[in-house]
Amino acid sequence: MEMRIDAHTHVMPPDMPDFQAKYGQERWPVVVKTSETEADIMVAGKLFRKVTEQVWSPGKIVEDMDQEGIDMQVVSPIPVTFSYWAPLEQALEMIQLQNDFIAGMVKERPDRFIGLGTVPMQDVEAAIKEMDRCVHELGLSGIEIGTNVNGENLDSPELLPFFQKAEEWDVLVFIHPWETLAKDRTPRHNFMYTVGMPSETALAAASLIWGGVIEKCPDLKVWFAHGAGSFPYILPRLDQGWNVWPDLRVTEHPPSHYMKNFYFDALTYDEQNTEYLIEKFGVDKLVMGSDYPFLLKESPPGKTISQMKSLSHEDRAKLMGETAASLLKVKERQTENG
């Protein structure tokens, strides 16, 4: 029977402190429990997201996994907690609280959980130090970062040492949209989630290849959330731009040349879109991910992949878990975690 790994899920500690009260900045996400099993995440006094114990209770998460036929989850922080805008020491406090919580989940149930940590990208030296701790001390399997750092695209020269060290240590970098572009135009209809996030992810991916990061880090492994948003569909346009604007080139080859470094979760909700990703980049570049436990999650996880009649048994097994297990070195991590 194929292994099923949900490679895109989010968690947070059950006892997140009130950083807004502690440090006096309204941009901190504040968790307000409304019952034993429910809470509101508030930002600047406004509701950001309603959550349930599915984000903080490993027991409830395992119960849901059993019901939906999921063997393992890849758990990562909720992007609103990245806090790149905050002073380093304060941001690092929140970051380490989450990394320690996720590491505890993995240590307690290495058979069910794979952990991704996060780092303070506003200070690259500190980000590298925390990545070192996450991977080499806590036993986490990769690092989640946002699509920009305080408005700077990921090809900012200041960020290059982080990617170089991730390449050196063979650390998978999971890129998730946050602080999306056109924020003033997307509140209506919740377009931040349905339009802003896919567009933001495309900008991050384009920046990494056009800006030369991937050329300078040829062995870096980067994984994008939500099927990389709109990026796969605008890649030919990026190539055309590279062809017609030679004065803007900083890479030897056009953007599509550097795609071997990119991986995607297959959270497209659509069989044709998933087939396009497979045809364009190869079945070995996709992993199943649901975005559990949020409203936009695919339920059950892998539903679209399961419905695809065009897939062979071997390819379906790769998408459902084999590729994620290899990419995240599951067997190695389980051995290390005892």
UniProtKB/TrEMBL annotation:
Top EC class, one word: lyase
Record-level GO BP terms: secondary metabolic process
EC number: 4.1.1.45
UniProt key word Cytoplasm: no
Alphabetized UniProt keyword annotations: Decarboxylase, Hydrolase, Lyase, Metal-binding, Zinc
A GO MF label: hydrolase activity
Domain Amidohydrolase-related: 5-329
Subunit details: Monomer.
Family the UniProt entry places it in: Belongs to the metallo-dependent hydrolases superfamily. ACMSD family.
Protein name according to UniProt: 2-amino-3-carboxymuconate-6-semialdehyde decarboxylase
Species per Swiss-Prot/TrEMBL record: Alteribacter keqinensis
